[in-house]
Amino acid sequence: METFTFDYPADQKATARAHVGVVGSGDLEVLLEPSPDQTAHVRINTSVDGYGQVWKNVLDRFFTRFRKAVRIEINDFGATPGMVALRLEQAVEESRQ
Prior knowledge:
- The protein contains two helices and six strands.
- The protein is an alpha/beta fold.
- The N and C termini lie far apart (33 Å).
- Its main location: cytoplasm.
């Protein structure tokens, strides 16, 4: 099991929370909430070791488009990078509703 943390600059405050996905069967959950500062903070708990650079690449790509101050926790059980990107987009969409 590994834990990663990443921080990204933000342009706007987030206003809502979101929870999408489940942990288990090769999936992951994403918990999103407003950040107390002008930074996006990401914490990843994963059952798969050795994929730190893959996580960084997926998040770097995501945060070039999404620039809100959020705190995101990701609990992973072996999801693919495509599933990670999908769940992040779902969390953003849910937080807008």
